[in-house]
Amino acid sequence: MMQAVTFSIITPVYNTPSDVLSDTITSVLDQTYAAWELLLVDDASTSPAVREVLDKAAAKDSRIRVVARESNGGIVAASNDGLREANGDFVALLDHDDLLTRDALQVVSEALAEDVDYVYSDEDKVDESGRYFDHFEKPDWSPERLRHQMYTGHLSVIRTSLAREVGGFRQEFEGSQDHDLVLRVTEQARRIVHIPEVLYHWRVVPGSAAGDLEAKPYAWAAGRDAVQAHLDRVGIAGTAELGDAPGLYKIRRAANPDRMISVIIPTRGGTGLVWGERRCFVLEAVRSLLAHTSHEKLEIVVVYDIPTPQAVLDELKEIAGEKLVLVPFHGEFNFSKKCNEGFLASTGDIVVLLNDDVEAISDDVLETLVAPLEEPDVGLTGARLLFSDRTLQHAGHVYYKDVIHHSYFMWPDDAFGPFSALRLNREASGLTGACIALRREDYELIGGMAEDLPLSFNDVDFSRKLRHVGYRLVWMWEAALFHFESQTRDPRVKESEVTYLFRRWDTPDRDPYSADGAAGYVW
C-alpha cells in the first residue's frame, strides 16, 4: 500500500438539481479517508441554485474547490479544467449526480502500490426512491471487453501524472470521453487493478444514461471512434463498428493471409440425428468449415480411429481435396492423445482444435477465430457454440472454488446476458476444446494436451496452462458454430481425472472474468 496517497475528485457540474448535487457532495464529505480534494467545475450553469450549493460546499470544507468556467464548454472542457487544477496523486472521476460509498477512497487507497496506475471498482444503480439494483460485478482487467464496451466505468481512479501525460480528455470524443481516456491510460499503465466491490452508485435520474442508454446517441458513435483510434494506436488490423445496442461495439479484424492454419479434428466417423436427419458428423463439420472460410493456406488434419468406415475417409478426400491430412489412431479412446498426434502431423503456424460434431454458422469463422492471435499476449481463442435448439453450449469456462462449468450454459442465443456479456468478445478463464485456436509455438510451450486426462477436463488443464504462462484467453462471440453434443450428456467423469485436475490446480474464491456461477462442476 502507498503511504499518504492523495485524491483529486473531478466533478463537472452543469444545471444539476440542487438536491441531487448536494447528495453527491455529501457522499464525498462522508468519506472515511481524509486525504482528498473535490474539484467542482461549474460549466457556466444558468441555475442560481447551483452556484448557491457550490459556494455553500466550499465554505463548509476547505478541501472543496469550485472552478468556475466563464462559458459553457461541455463535459470535456470542464473535465480538463479539473485535471489541470488537480493536486492529488490520483484523480477520481465522479459525475455530478452520482454517489460514492463511504469507504470508496479508503478501499482504493488500500489497493494502491507504486506500480498501480489505474483502478476501477464494481458499481450499481440507485433510483430516486433509494433502491439499489443492477450490481455490475465487473471482470478483472479485460482489454478485449473494453474494446467492445466501456465496462470499467465507475469508479475510475487514474494516476494524475499519467492522465496528463496521455493528453487528458479529448473534445472529438465528447460523450465517450471517459472511454477514450481509459483506453489511452490502459495502453500505458504499468498495472491495472479491479476492486470487486461496489464503491459507486450510478444514480438513475431523468435524462441520465443510467436509466436510458439512448439518452445520448452521439456518445455511441464517439465511442466507436475512440475504439478505432485505439486499434490504430496499438497496431491491431481491424475496424470498429457499432454493436447490437448503444454502448456496444464490434471489431472486424483482418486475419493474416500468410498464416498456415491447421484444423485438427479427432473422429471415429460417427453418425447421429440432427434436426430429424441422420448425418456423418465429421463430413458435415469439414464441409461447413470450408463453406464459411476463404482462407487459402489451410490444412484439415483428421485423426481417425481405425474402425472409421472407408467410405467416410473417401468422402473426406472429395470434400477437402489436397487440404486433407489423414492420421490413423490406434489404441483406446484418448481425446488428448488424438489432438497431440494430429498436432505432430500438422504444419500450420496456427492450430485449431475442432470436435467433429460441429457445424460452422458465421461467415469467415476461421478468420474471426484466429485473427486475435496476431496480438502477442493472446494465447487462446474460442468460439460461441450452440446446441441444435440455439441455446448456448459454450460462452467461456468459469472456475472458482469447486466449480468448473460452461458460462451461461443453455441460455438462449438471442439473450444479451448480464451487462451484455453475451454480445461481445471478452476474456475468459478457460475455453472448451471443442473449438479453440492458438499459435503452434504455444502448443509446444505448454506441452500440448494432458494425456492423463483422456476424456474430461483436458481443455480446463490446457486453458490453465496457457493462463499460467501469462496469456489472455479470448471468447469470440462473433465466431459461431453449432455443437451437437447432447444437452443431457451424463455429467459424471472419472474420479481419477477429478483428482488429477484439483491436485494440479488451485481454484480462486471468485472467477476473475465472470460472475455467472453454479454449484459443483458441470460437464
From TrEMBL:
Descriptive protein name: Glycosyltransferase
Pfam families attached to this UniProt entry: Glycos_transf_2 (PF00535)
Gene Ontology molecular-function annotations: glycosyltransferase activity
Glycosyltransferase 2-like domain residues: 8-137, 262-443
SUPFAM superfamilies referenced in this protein's UniProt entry, alphabetically: Nucleotide-diphospho-sugar transferases
Transmembrane intervals: none
Annotated signal sequence range: none
Organism, as annotated: Sanguibacter suaedae
Coiled coil regions, renumbered to chain: none
Listed InterPro entries: Glyco_trans_2-like (IPR001173), Nucleotide-diphossugar_trans (IPR029044)
Domain of life where this protein originates: Bacteria
